[in-house]
Request: fold
Amino acid sequence: MPKLTVEGMGTYEVPQGKRLTLALREEAGTDQLHACGGKARCTTCRVEFIEGEPDKMTTAEKDILAARGVTGARLSCQILCESDMSVRLISRFEGSGRKDSGSPLAANLEPEPVVWTSKG
Reply:
């Protein structure tokens, strides 16, 4: 099982292939935002990688990051836990002023079809 380290919180074993947003919420118990429900339409689920950043990303993630001008962060809703990784939370419910952390997340990556590309 991959290990997920969340800066300032701890290290957690997560199921292979689980969406990072779900692992952050369920295994690590964080208050990670995910306003669009994990469909790569917003950027509220951003994280910064300290170690173990995946080399691939979905085209949906690449497109929204470019459209919003976001650099140095990834969308946790578009990342699968396939190996050990260490992240810094930068988008949390606490202090956000939102009524909740976001819509329910599906177990599988969305939007369909999922198309992979290099992060570079």
Residues 59-68 form the longest helix (10 residues). Residues 3-118 form a domain with the Ubiquitin-like (UB roll) fold (CATH 3.10.20.30). The first strand starts at residue 3 and ends at 6. Helices lie at 20-26, 59-68.
